[in-house]
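User: Run a structure prediction on this.
Assistant: Running it now.
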Amino acid sequence: CILNCALTIVGNLGIAIEPFLPDAADNILKQLNSSQYHNDWKILWRKGEVVRTVKDHHQLSEAQLLYRNVEDADIEKQMARLSRSKAPASAQGSTPSETSAKGEGSGTKPLKQEITIDDFARMDIRIGKVIAAEKMEKSNKLLKLTVDSGVDTRTILSGIAQHYTPEEMVGRQVTFIANLAPRKMMGLLSQGMILMAEDKDGKLRLVLPDKDVEPGSTVS
């Protein structure tokens, strides 16, 4: 009875939220195998009547997550887009009309805000070699890369799992920021950031020297 009542409450909530969260409402009712109540939220206000969305011996559908976790890689990407949109056109090296004319229809992202040579000098960009790679559980974007940096062996989590398989990454050289402050992601400490090129379609490609170099070689 307790479980049946709990599922009935969830079903009623699924009906109630339909006007402002239609996708979530539809998902809830599908999982409860009660889709016949979709778009029928007014029945909740019938006097003296309880909507039994889940009756005795009712067969439920497969349970699924209503919403996926927002991962650090997603947040970083959106923050970068927000920063670009806030950057004044003059700081991007063009007037508003020039920027519009050059970028119209090309899909090319506008220039970021101008930096100094000192800003660049503080970045320690190096070439490393991936000696192991695996996909992170509970993430469809992150790869866990073990990288020989030339000075140590470190773990770098990179949001490239939709563009490269772990098998494709093992043995590959990568360009990475070596002195980026470590940050914890999904319970692991990521020690660096892999540099990638992103085209107008959102495809990511490794940024590499034209010939193999020793791990630890610096980019300047």
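The chain has a mean pLDDT of 81.
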